[in-house]
Design brief:
The chain is globular, with a radius of gyration of 17 Å. 76% of the residues lie in helices and 0% in strands. It has 2 domains: 1-88, no CATH class; 90-147. The protein is mostly helical and 147 residues long.
C-alpha cells in the first residue's frame, strides 16, 4: 500500500461524514452562516491538531506557501457556501457531493500535469473519464431531495 493511501482514505471518510452533516444542516440554517460555522469549527479543529498533535517532518514555511494556502481556503469557503445552497435547493447528497468533489478531483487531475509537471498516464486518463461519467450519471438523477 502506498504510504499516502491510508491518510487519503481516512480523509475520504471524513468528507463522506461531512456531507451527511452538511445535508442535515441545509435548510435549517442560512447558507453563509452555515458555511461560517462549518469553517470556524474546522479552524478550531485544525488549531487543536496543530497545537496538540505531532507535526511530522519539518517543512520550511514560505510566503508563497502561505498565499497558496490562503487562496485554497477561499476556494473551500466558496465551495462550502455553494454546497449549502445546492443541498438547500434539493440536491441529493450523492449527486451534489459527487459533482462537487468529483468535479474538483477531475479538474485537478487534468490541471496537475500542466501546473506541476505530474505525469498524465492512461490510468489517470481512465480515472478522469470515470469521474466525468459519475458526474453525469448521478447528476441526471432528476429527483430533488426533501429539505
Amino acid at each position: 500500500m502506498e504510504p499516502w493511501l491510508k491518510a487519503a482514505l481516512a480523509g475520504g471518510v471524513c468528507i463522506g461524514v461531512h456531507y451527511m452533516f452538511l445535508r442535515a444542516a441545509s435548510g435549517k440554517i442560512g447558507d453563509s452562516l452555515g458555511a461560517l460555522i462549518l469553517e470556524g469549527t474546522a479552524t478550531l479543529g485544525i488549531l487543536a491538531a496543530y497545537v496538540g498533535l505531532p507535526r511530522g517532518e519539518a517543512v520550511a514555511t514560505t510566503r508563497v506557501g502561505g498565499v497558496y494556502a490562503a487562496l485554497s481556503g477561499l476556494m473551500i469557503s466558496g465551495a462550502s457556501i455553494l454546497l449549502f445552497y445546492a443541498l438547500r435547493r434539493g440536491g441529493p447528497v450523492a449527486s451534489t457531493g459527487t459533482v462537487v468533489l468529483g468535479g474538483g478531483v477531475t479538474l485537478s487531475a487534468l490541471l496537475a500535469p500542466l501546473l506541476f509537471g505530474e505525469a498524465f498516464t492512461a490510468r489517470r486518463g481512465l480515472g478522469v473519464l470515470l469521474g466525468v461519467c459519475a458526474i453525469f450519471v448521478l447528476s441526471a438523477d432528476g429527483k430533488a431531495a426533501t429539505p
